User: Fold this.
Amino acid sequence: MGRVPALYTSVLGTLTAGAVYCPLFSAFGPEPVRSRLELGAVRVLVTTDLLYRRKVAPIRTALPGLEHVLVVRTPGAGDLPDGTLDFEVLLREASSHFETARTSPEDAALLHFTSGTTGKPKGVLHAHAAVIAHVATARVLQLLTEVAPDVDAATVIPGLAFRDQFDFDSMDTLNFAIALHRELGVNVPEAEYSQLSGLDRCVDYLTAKIPVR
Assistant:
């Protein structure tokens, strides 16, 4: 499934429910899809009707653990495939009241698989604390480019101090701290400005400040 609203709804819904989210590359053929669904013991799959017919329907009988398939309908693609549920209909019928599952920083949140080019793909689990680190990294880079507009976020080297990569002086550090407080609610005392000197240090510092719920 591409970067459509249903994708983000599925990711956030999975994490909110306390389940583990496992992304699958839509260009995979049926066999790579089958192996990852099987290895991950996947019980619920969200995909499109077109992808389901091409990639999943031919291998569905080989996946007895796959209990539910929610499909996002494609206009003009025909009837709902057998053995699937309509994603949009389920959303409309769902209750607006939902209690977020309580998780700890060490609880599993994401399951990624290696490419499998040299053998059987291997699963790599990321904990909820890692999700917070992903969010912190994205926000740090976003705010960094606002404070220092000449910075290209894609080229920032994690293990190197900002000042060794681009023009970043004490005034930039101050503005960066102000932006972090404004956008993330994290107060950075002047005595701790050294924690903002590089991407790695900054993310570690912020993940310790942002509560994981």
Summary: The domain at 130-209 is CATH 1.10.1200.10 (Non-ribosomal Peptide Synthetase Peptidyl Carrier Protein; Chain A). The radius of gyration is 21 Å. Strands lie at 44-48, 68-72, 85-86, 108-113, 123-127. The CA atoms of residues 86 and 124 lie 30 Å apart.
